[in-house]
Description:
With 142 residues, this protein is mostly helical.
Amino acid sequence: MLSRTQYVSIAAFRHQLRRFLSFSEAAANAAGLPAQQHQALLAIAGHPDDAPPTVGLLADQLLIAPHTAAELVTRMAEADLVIKTPLPTDRRRLQLTLTLKAAELLAQLTREHLTELENLRTLLEQVANGAPAKAQLPKLNT
């Protein structure tokens, strides 16, 4: 049987996770990006060293179907956020590169997210130690 404290801890964690995701979506929208495009930019910039950023990798990272990732990449290319280049080893696959515009947007959003993650870390430590998180994450100023 689980204790009430364990349920309270998990509920507090999920609440803070939802707050962070809400913050992230609002920050992306304030920067002029749909949240999914922000996630895609982050996945491209943070791709594993052993694999080039491709539509397939993006689909895996965002947990979306490959055709959905391809449509997302097309919209991002039209918005001057990514450049699609066929891979030299398999010209059917496209390597994705951030444009300067995308890199600047992502850097701005990442700075904001790192600050928010630091706030969240403190709250999650409280939850992990069995204390309900009493502090609130700051509201995004939009």
